[in-house]
Amino acid sequence: MSTNTLTERYVHEVVRRLPADQRDDIADELRTTIADTIEARDPARPEAVEREVLSEMGDPIRHAARYADRPLALIGPDLYPTYIRLLAFLLTTVLPVITAVFVLLEIVDGNGLGAAVGAGVETVFTVGAQMVTVLTVLFAVAERAGHRKGTLIRTTDWTPDDLPETREPQKVGVGAVLTAVWYALLLGLTVWQQLSEPYRTNGGERIAVLDPDLWSGWIWPILIGLAGLVVLALVRVITHGWTSRLAVLHAIAQAVFVLPLAWILQQRQIFNPDFLADVTDNTTPEVYTGAALIVLVASLIAVVNGFRAAKK
Amino acid sequence: MATEEIALGQAQELRRGTVVLACLALLRKPQYGYALLETLNDAGVTVDGNTLYPLLRRLEKQGLLTSEWNTDESRPRKFYRVSPEGSRVRTSLVREWQDLVASISRLTKENG
């Protein structure tokens, strides 16, 4: 048996990466093989040849991987398609929504535009980095777990239904841009009138137009729905049109936005009572109910249009 | 130069599967790693030790080869030989090989 230190060191480096029950057997065979090779090549100068033979055998990590049948890739070809699809979905859909929510919270807290932009940038980087890291670690672990069991994890089989819809370049998203601007305006006005209390009563007092009590209740789903609608409209600008996934998300955002809005309209809870007293309001309850119906119908039309456009 | 490299790579792809068949054919008589490597290379089946030794263990794990340590000589050596299951696999691989040779020669003749 060879007692040559280079060989011993090499063998040790290889087998310590292998399952314990195979170590001794593979180590013995490696030693013999290396010795056989050296002997056959040039027994006269064993040390130089040993160096040669070992360098031909290459990096011990790679060599061990050949024995262990272990993947030398972090995420192999079986899991890669699912990994990349999930990553794209997280970064292009989930991340923008989370960022919008954080920016909105900053604005609602009255911390100013600078803080809101800061929160947005910070969210994009920290949450984005976490998404990439966690997903990658999970898939790398799954890859190794699958190999250890000897059976590869079958990812859900791909069918032609998974093909992304080809988007006809619909007339460049002017409509989508206007939609985004419109909802952003609604969102901004709602927040702004609460923060800066623009209305001046006859007594010279500054008050908000909408009922401040809403901020401990119904205003939140309305704002979140609006933010969702803005994001979805922007996505449509970027992707040049509707997809069925976008249409579904749009319907959800519309519901989150418009159902609470219709409710507070119908309940006549939308305006600040002080504001109404000041403008000597004499609108009848029917006007509020009518307004509630109008926003419901308008929203329904928008939802249906979204689905029809997605079908084309 | 580039074409030569491509041809070399493609030839390697072609040869890859044949090493298993050659091993199953040669190991009807017990043989140890290095000697088998020499025999294969002398027979014109070029293969690298880095490929062959792990391959032998994989085939053993699959039950196509069995192994035994021989400690009679100064250096203990692991001898591999084909198992009954390995023989069956060899038979079907040989048939596959002959079919392939026939098909390819027909194809290359027609379109040659």
Describe the SSE topology:
The complex is a heterodimer of chains A (312) and B (112).
Chain A: H1 5-15, H2 20-41, H3 46-57, H4 60-68, H5 80-108, H6 112-149, H7 174-196, E1 199-200, E2 206-207, H8 219-239, H9 244-266, H10 273-278, H11 285-311
Antiparallel strand pairs in A: 1-2
Chain B: H1 2-26, E1 31-32, H2 33-42, H3 49-61, E2 65-70, E3 77-82, H4 84-111
Transmembrane segments (chain A): 83-104, 124-142, 172-195, 215-235, 247-267, 287-307
Keywords (chain A): Membrane, Transmembrane, Transmembrane helix
Pfam family, one (chain A): HAAS
The secondary-structure class of chain A comes to: mainly alpha
Give the class of chain B from helix and strand content and strand pairing: alpha+beta
Radius of gyration of chain A: 33 Å
CATH topology of chain B: Arc Repressor Mutant, subunit A
- Largest binding interface between chains: A-B, 19 and 17 residues
In the CATH scheme, the class of chain B would be Mainly Alpha
Number of domains of chain A: 3
Q: Supply the CATH architecture of chain B.
A: Orthogonal Bundle
Question: Quick one: how many beta strands of chain A?
Answer: 2
Percentage of residues in DSSP E strands of chain B: 5-15%
Overall form of chain A: elongated
The helix-strand sequence of chain A is: HHHHHHHEEHHHH
Main sheet attributes: strand count, strand direction, barrel closure of chain B = 3 strands, antiparallel
Radius of gyration of chain B: 16 Å
User: Superfamily at the CATH H level of chain B?
Assistant: Winged helix-like DNA-binding domain superfamily/Winged helix DNA-binding domain
Runs of chain B with pLDDT <50, length 5+? none
Strand content of chain A: under 5%
Low-confidence stretches of chain A: 150-154
The largest sheet of chain A has its strands arranged as 1-2
- In which order are the strands of the major sheet of chain B placed? 1-3-2
Average predicted confidence as pLDDT of chain A: 82
Keywords (chain A): Membrane, Transmembrane, Transmembrane helix
Pfam family, one (chain A): HAAS
Transmembrane segments (chain A): 83-104, 124-142, 172-195, 215-235, 247-267, 287-307
Protein name (chain B): PadR family transcriptional regulator
